[in-house]
Amino acid sequence: MNDGTRNAGLNDIAEQKKWLRATTHGLLTRFSRWRRRVKIGLVIGGGFIAGAAGVAANLLDPALKWQVYIFQIIGLALVFAGGVLMDFLDEGAADAIKRANELVDAAEERDEIISSLGEDFEWFTRLYATAAALRDVVEGVAASGPGMEDDQKHRFAAMLDVVVADKAILFGMNSDRWNFAIYLYESGMGCLTCIACRRPIRAEEEAPHRSWKPGEGHIGIAFQMRREIVAGDTSEPEARALFDAPEANRHEDDRERYRSIASLPIRLAGDEPLGILVATSDVPDRFRLRERDEEGARDPVEPLRILANALALVIKTTDLYNQTAG
Amino acid sequence: MTQPTVKEWPKSDIETLDREIGARLQRLSAGRATAQDVSEASRLIRDRADFMMPGVFRRLRLRQSEKKAS
User: Fold this and answer.
1) Rounded to a whole number, what is the distance in Å from the CA of B52 to chain A's nearest CA?
2) Which of A125, A184, A222, A319 gives A229 a disulfide partner, CB atoms 3.0 to 4.6 angstroms apart?
3) Which chain B residues touch A296 with a CB distance below 8 Å?
4) Residue A207 and residue A251: Cα distance in Å, rounded?
């Protein structure tokens, strides 16, 4: 279902709900007015009949009084009906209002569930499409070989582009200052160097990037520990104590700019890491660990896991090609 | 007060599940897997799927199982 149809559907539900509220309110208001008039009419009419009958009883012959008493009883019965029986109808009205409100609440809850499931479905389908696109890249390398060194660099940048293109849905990003980068371990230099990077500003992408030794900063720690390191808010003292870069490698705006970070090892199962995929944002909790009991399905780290795995496959396949060629 | 260590930093449940699944699948592909490995691998795969499932489906399933139990 496209956005237009879904919105039309939701608008239709909203219209129906509005109609239900207006109709219920109108019916209950009319019913309430009608009930009040009947109640007043019964009490006044009944009282009048009973009173008139009482006066007439004093004027009539005692032998005929029983007829008047009948009228008096009827009058009192009408007063009783107006005063007591109509209260039962009041209780019925309160129940009708309660049930109508419950119905509207249930319809609202259903709307919210549908809307939330719609977002989850969009996220899952986009994740699947992203994974399929990355698999195509991997299959291309396996089938045709990695090509030249420049081809590989372009391929890594293209793989970042596949994820960056859907950053709004996959990560919920809008006007963030974001950064996606691939660091590979250079054994000769003993450090991790950036080989591809995507940022909102081209000049920042092309500027020289810092290198990280294993165990140094967020990236170096993830590489050394061989595990995902995700920090939702790096301004928290615990995160700062652990992940702040060494003084010499620190920039003034690091804390502001890299507010949430996810560093994932680029590795195949059981293998040593080949590098690190890092994603950052200046918005806290943009990257965070999803809890098991969360309502939504969106996991901002899952697309990065898929990308890191695809990168590892491309690198390993390239190594195999090179070994065969060598 | 003692400083926190990186080892204490929260681990991703999914990453842990993936590693557990990977270990069993490696044993399977190496022909060293036991019947227990196979059933654990399928349970772990289901756990991973459950982990990603939206809360509303988990609630519905819980409600259904409660209805069946009562």
Assistant:
1) 6
2) A222
3) 54-55
4) 14
- Considering only the beta carbons, identify the residue of B5, B22, B52 that sits closest to A299: B52
Q: Can you read off the two tokens belonging to residue A310?
A: 């695809």
Residues facing A191 on adjacent strands: A186
User: What angle is formed at CA A102 by the lines to CA A98 and CA A108, rounded to 5 degrees?
Assistant: 145
The residue of chain A nearest to residue B51, with distances taken between CA atoms, is: A292
pLDDT digits (tens, 9 = 90+) for A75-129: 888 888 887 766 666 656 667 777 877 888 888 888 888 888 999 999 999 999 9
Q: A7-59, pLDDT tens digit by residue? A: 555 567 677 777 877 787 788 778 778 888 888 888 899 889 888 888 888 88
Highest mean pLDDT among A40-49, A254-263, B61-70: A254-263
Structure tokens at A59: 């004027």
Task: Indicate the SS3 state at residue A181.
Answer: strand
Distance from CA of A3 to the nearest CA of B (A): 21
Query: B14, A302: Cβ pair inside 8 Å?
Result: yes
List Cβ neighbours of B55 (8 Å cut-off, separation of 6 or more): A293, A294, A295, A296
Specify the DSSP element, H or E, that contains A167. helix A167-171
Mutation target among A111, A114, A120, A264 for the B interface, most CBs of B within 10 A: A120
Q: What's the average model confidence in pLDDT over A192-201? A: 95
